[in-house]
Amino acid sequence: MLETDKLTKQFKDVIAVDDVSLVLMRGESVGLLGPNGAGKSTAIAMISTLMKPSSGDVRLNGKSVLKKPDDMRRVLGVVPQKIALYEELSAYENLKFFGRLYGLSGNKLEQRIEYVLELVGLADRKKELVKNYSGGMQRRVNLAAAMMHEPEVLIMDEPTVGIDPQSRNHLLETIRKLNRDEGMTVLYTSHYMEEVEKLCDRVYIMDHGKVIAEGTKEELKAILSDQETVLIEFDQNYPELFIKLSEIEGVQHSTIEEQSLKLIIPRGTRMLAALFHEAERYGAQVINVNVQTPTLEDVFLRLTGRKLRD
Amino acid sequence: MGAFLIKDIMLLLRDRSELLILLAMPFLLIAILGFSLRGIFSGDLEALEMDIALVSEENEAQAVASIQNEIEEMGLPPEQAQALTQAAEAASPQTMLVSLFEDESLSELITIERMDRQQAQQSLDEETVDAVITLPEGFTQKSLKNMLFGSKEGSELELLAADLSSPQTDVLDSILNEFVRTVNFEASISRLSGQDSAVEVSGGIETITAREPITSFQYYTIGMAVMFVLFVGSTIAGQANLEQKQMVFDRIRLSNRSPLLYLSSKAIAASAIVTVQLALLFILSALLFQTFAADSWAFWSGIAIISITLAFSVGCLAALMVAITLRLESDAVPAIFSGGVISLMAFVGGSFMPLDGMPEMLRAIGNWTPNGAALSAYFSWLLEPDLGQLTEPLMRIGIVAVVFLLLALALFPRKGGAA
C-alpha cells in the first residue's frame, strides 16, 4: 500500500536519512525502532509529504506522491511528536476546527467528534481547554485530531513521549484496537522497544539514518538465535568483577545496570562455574541468575553495540 | 475560510495579554494623553490665550500715499491707475494684519495692543505680553510694491517671543506664516488678473480659523488607534509562528487546504480584528470623553470608510509578516515589529505629536505609512467632511496595502507540495 524507495535526506553535510526503503501492507502494523537522532522523525516527515526528500521516492498504491501529495494526505493521519493543537481551545473546538478543514460539517462533523473523543476516552472532558489537560490527555487529543477524517494509514511519531503509564497504556490499547478491529494500517515510531514489541507485526530498526535490520519480531530475534542472554543479579555493584566477567571467553556483549550484569553469549556456553568462581574471589553474593530469550533491545545492542536509549 | 477566521478570533479573545495591548492600552493612553496634553491643542483655547504688542515703525498712511503717487506718475491708463490706487489702499498689509487679529474668532485668543519699541521690549521683559510683532520702517511700501508691481524686494515682519518653545509662540508663528503666504498668494492672483484682491485676501486669512480645531482627545484617540492597530499584525504573525512551532501548521498543510487560503485567512482575520478594534476605540472614546460631537451618519460613514481602508492595509501587513515569519521559521519578525518598528511608524506617522516642525523627509515617510496616511485622512475628515479630501490619503493607504500583499505572496513559503 505504502512504500519508500531509497529515501534520502541530506542537510548540508549531514545525512539524516540514508537510502531508506520501507513497505507497509494494508492493515499491517509496522514499527520503526531506533534511538533518538536515528532519523525516524525525518523519515516520517518525508513519508507524510511534509518534507521533500533529497532523493528517493514515496509511493502510495504504486504511484509517487512527491509531486502530487493530495491523495496521500487524504488517506494519512499523522500524529506528530509535538502536541499539534491549539492550547487555548478546548478539545472539542480543536477537533471541530480540524474536522472543518477536512470538509466535515453539521451532524457528520458532530458525530465524528463524538466518535474520536470516545475512542480516546475524553468525551466527558471535551469542553476543557487543552492547556489544562495532563500530558497524557493532550497526547490522546493529538491522536484524536489525526483521526478526524477517517484516515486509512496512521503514522505516529513517538506518541507516548513524556506521559504517565495510565495514559500510555490507554493510547497503546487505542492504537491496537484501531489496527486489529478496524484494519487501520499503522506506522509506529518509537525508541521504546516494549511498545514496538507489543504493537507491531513487523519492525524496521534504524540507526544513524539507515535501516540496519528489518523483519517480523521473530525474524529479528532469530538474529540472536545462536545466542542467549544471561542476566546476573548481585547484592551490590562490583565494577572490577563486572569487567572481569565481561572478559570471560565467549561473552559477545555485556551491559552493566547498577547491581546487574547482562551478558550475551553463544547458546550452550558453559560459564556458570567461571561466574561463581570469580564472584567468590571478589566476595560478591549472586542473588539471581536468569537465562533469557533475546528481546529487540538485545537485537539492537547486538547490531549497534549501543542501547536504544543511549 | 470560516474555520480559520473563527479559530483566529477565538484565540485572540482568549489571549488576555493581547487584548490588553489591543484595547485597554490605547484607551488608557487616550485618557492620559488627552487629559494631560489638552492645553497644547488648539481646541483648548484657554491654554493658548496671549497678549501681543504691535510695534509699527512707519507711517502707514504716508506709505500708502507714496505708493499711490508712484502709480499716478507711471502714466497708466486712468482705469488701471484707479484700480491700482484703490488696491493699494485696501490691501495695505498692516491694516490686514490688524484686521486679522481683531477678527472675531482670533480676538478671543489674542489681545493686541499698539506700543512703541521701547515700551514693547519692557512689557516683554516683564512678561506682561507674550510676544512682540514689529513692522519695520518701509514694511508697507515694500509689501505693496511687491504685491502690486511684483518688486523683488520683499518685506519682513519681526516676531519676538518670551518663550520660543511655547505652544502659544508656535500658534502665533503659524498664523503669521499663513498670513504672509496668503498675502503673497493673493497678490500673485491680483497681478495676474489685474483685480482688487482685498476681499480674497481676507477670505484666505479666514481659513486659519474657519475650521473647528482638533482637540487633544480627538488627536490621541486617532493617534493611538492608528498606532495600536499595527499590533494586530504582530499578534497574527506571532500566532502563525506558534502554529509552525507546534506543528499545527503541518496539520493544516496535511488537510490539503491551499496554503494561500491560510495566508488570506490571516489577512482577513487581521482586517476584521482591526475593524472591531477601531470601532470600539472610537465609540468608547466618543461616549466617555465626548471626543466626537458629530453624531450624523455622514460623519460616521466617513470614519468607517477610512477605518475599513486602514483595516485592509493592516490585514495585508499582517499577511506580509506571516509570510516572513513562516519563511524564516522564527518569531523574530513579530518581536522586532512590536518591540520597535511600531513605535517608529507611530512617531513618523504623527501618533505622538503633530509633525509640523519635523523635517520634510520624515513627514513624507510618515505619509506613506498606513497609520500616518490614515491619521491625516481622519484629521482631514474631522476638519472638513469632504470625500474629495480623503482621496489622496486613502490612495496612499491602498497603494501601501497592495505592496504589502504582493510582497507577502512573493515571500510566502508555498509548501503545498511535498516541500
What is the mean predicted local confidence, pLDDT of chain B?
81
- How many domains in all of chain B? 2
What gap, in angstroms, lies between the N and C termini of chain B?
Answer: 23 Å
| Main beta sheet of chain B | 4 strands, mixed
Largest interchain contact: A-B, 34 and 23 residues
Strand order of the largest sheet of chain B: 2-1-3-4
Backbone shape of chain A: elongated
The helix fraction of chain B, in percent, is over 70%
CATH homologous superfamily of the largest domain in chain A, by name?
P-loop containing nucleotide triphosphate hydrolases
- Total count of helical runs of at least 4 residues of chain B: 19
What does this protein look like?
The complex is a heterodimer of chains A (310) and B (419). By secondary structure, chain A is an alpha/beta fold. Chain A has 2 domains: 2-219, 3-Layer(aba) Sandwich (Rossmann fold); 226-293, Alpha-Beta Plaits (2-Layer Sandwich). Helices cover 35% and strands 28% of the residues of chain A. In chain A, the strands form 3 sheets. Chain A has a 6-stranded mixed sheet, sandwiched between helices. In chain A, a hairpin with a 2-residue loop joins strand 5 and strand 6. Chain A starts with a strand and ends in a 6-residue tail after the last helix. Chain B is mainly alpha-helical and 419 residues long. Chain B has 2 domains: 2-42 and 212-411, no CATH class; 47-192, abc type-2 transporter like fold (3-Layer(aba) Sandwich). In chain B, helix 2 (16-36) runs antiparallel to helix 11. The radius of gyration of chain B is 28 Å and the shape is elongated. The A-B interface holds A 46, 48-53, 58, 65-67, 69-70, 73-74, 76, 78, 80, 82-86, 88-89, 93, 97-98, 100-102, 145-146, 149 and B 2-3, 6-7, 10-11, 14-15, 246-248, 250-257, 415, 417-419.
